[in-house]
Amino acid sequence: MTKTSGIGAAGLAVTAAGVLANLLAYVVPVVGARQLSAADLSALATLLAMTAIAGVASTGLQIAVAVHRARHGASSVARSALLTVLVTAGALAAALPIAVLLLHLPVFATVLAGVSTVGVVAAGRWLGEMQGDQRFVPLAIGLAVLAGGRYGGVVAGLAFGAGLTGALLLGAATAVLVLPVLHLLARRPGVAAAGEPLAARAVLTAGGATLAMLVVSYADLILARRFLPFDASGAYAVGTVLTKGALWAPQVVTILALPRLAQADRRALRVSVGLVAACGVVLVAGAAVAGGLAFRLAGGPDYASLGRYAPVFAATGAVYGVLFVLVNAQVAAGARWPAAPLWVAAAGFALVAWLVLPQTLAGIAYGALGTSVVALAATSVLVGMRLRTSVTGPRPEHATLSID
After folding, report:
1. What does the alpha-carbon distance between residue 120 and residue 69 come to, in Å, rounded to a whole number?
2. 2 or 236, which is more confident
3. What is the phi/psi pair of residue 163, to 5°?
4. Which has the minimum average pLDDT: 122-136, 161-175, 186-200, 238-252?
5. Transmembrane stretches, by residue range (predicted)?
6. Where are the domains of the chain?
7. What angle do CA 335, 336, 338 make, to 5 degrees?
8. CA pair distance 131, 238, nearest whole angstrom
9. Which 3-state string (H, E, C) describes the chain?
10. Which of the two residues, 386 and 398, has the higher pLDDT score?
11. Residue that wins the pLDDT comparison between 1 and 202
12. From 61-70, 211-220, 226-235, the region with the lowest mean pLDDT
């Protein structure tokens, strides 16, 4: 098998795993809507949203381990991984009782959702090891196994009528039981950990960058809920389906490129940005040609008339796709504050939406596009400065850490 065909097979495998994970995540509320009461369905949706936010720690751990592994080879990550799991568990132990009181959530179901989240966070270690070693087919298997553990148990419990608590109990069990499988997939007999240990700060930086990407890409949806009438905010939510599609469609490129980015491979950066940008151009062109169909598929025939806005939503997702490649490149290179432009852009967007933007669907949509462009421009400047510095002088000492 040639190198190109090997990369292609790895890309297909990782893409398939991502599709499976997204499909299972989508199936959970769909099955829940048919099996649960309105109150239990609302509780399930709330718990899923909370665990998705907490699950940022898993992605941060995975990226930090992958970058460290790509740069230093086999080395000890157990201490930082354990610390990440313990901090997440502590944060959940502090936050979930407050959520139970304020949001009127069932206690046992909330505890089970927390257990499942801790299992997902722990999985980030082994996924990161496989990604950093560029063992993408085992990584794809691991992603599929984790998706099955994270969502499959909940889907099965709901389908068999176990109710909210029973489904979450089965989901917590499967989320924990898949961890030994991931350990076996990542294990490489005969390879000793001899490199520099992973610094806990690397995981914190990676998690912060992941959280910033989540916040800035969802800011428009939150602002639409705040400033638009309910019918318009519902239509806006349909439009964001196109944004998320354009954003996540090329995510496999970043997954495959991250180990090379950690090794300061400039060609990998250029190719990654080019591929993600090209994918975005295709999706935006498709939205321009068939905007009505895109809205119809995303939300039903009632929203087809909004097709003229489809290119705006798709363009926002496409710009964020390129931006996220650059942010990952920054953290892989050891940048100290890789997510700073994203936090500033999100805060600025909220302020402009409050004071300046027309409080209409189009106003928020164009504001989101402008925010993505500003954040991309600022990050591009920082990336350019870093690349010029790496040519004219030695890398800063802190950049020897794997900060994702």
Report:
1. 20
2. 236
3. 80, 180
4. 186-200
5. 41-68, 80-101, 107-127, 139-160, 166-186, 198-223, 235-259, 271-297, 309-327, 339-357, 363-385
6. 3-186, 200-400
7. 65
8. 33
9. CCHHHHHHHHHHHHHHHHHHHHHHHHHHHHHHHHHCCHHHHHHHHHHHHHHHHHCHHHHHHHHHHHHHHHHHCCECCHHHHHHHHHHHHHHHHHHHHHHHHHHCCCHHHHHHHHHHHHHHHHHHHHHHHHHHCCCHHHHHHHHHHHHHHHHHHHHHHHHCCCHHHHHHHHHHHHHHHCHHHHHHHHCCCCCCCCECCCCHHHHHHHHHHHHHHHHHHHHHHHHHHHHCCHHHHHHHHHHHHHHHHHHHCCHHHHHHHHHHHHCCCHHHHHHHHHHHHHHHHHHHHHHHHCHHHHHHHHHCHHHHHHHHHHHHHHHHHHHHHHHHHHHHHHHHCCCCCCCHHHHHHHHHHHHHHHHCCCCCHHHHHHHHHHHHHHHHHHHHHHHHHHHHHHHHCCCCHHHHCCCC
10. 386
11. 202
12. 226-235
Q: If phi over 0 gives left and psi between -120 and 50 gives alpha, with beta otherwise, what is residue 36?
A: beta
Q: Let me know how long the chain is.
A: 404
Among 375, 382, 303, which residue's Cα sits nearest to residue 337? Answer: 382
The yes-or-no verdict on residue 393 having pLDDT over 60 is no
pLDDT (tens digit per residue) in 320-358: 999 999 999 999 888 888 999 999 999 999 999 999 999
